[in-house]
Design goal:
This protein has helices at 39-50, 54-67, 77-93, and strands at residues 5-8, 11-14, 26-32, 69-76, 99-104. It is of the alpha+beta class. The strands form two sheets. A three-stranded antiparallel sheet has the order 4-3-5.
Amino acid sequence: MSDDFESHAGTKTLVKPAEKTKTPSWFKVVILNDDFTPQDYVVHILEKFFRKNKEEATQLMLQVHRKGMGIAGVFTQEIAETKAAQVNEYSKSHQYPLKCVVEKA
């Protein structure tokens, strides 16, 4: 008899297997440096979309400026992609070339 059934006095009851919850994969939202976007605008983006306080946003902006990139946050894939798209669209609408990309963490 299959392990998927329990037998009681001639009756069979289907037993639902224990659900296995898959741990979500994590994705980084990476801000890329460019030569045109003002530093205060990058700080604004980090505060607005990633809820960084002024000091955190400033430190991360300086990292992006010095190293060419910085991790704005780590999220599930859907949230990371949404945040990157929001920043890219917002920057484009304000005529800045600032870009965010999503990478697997």
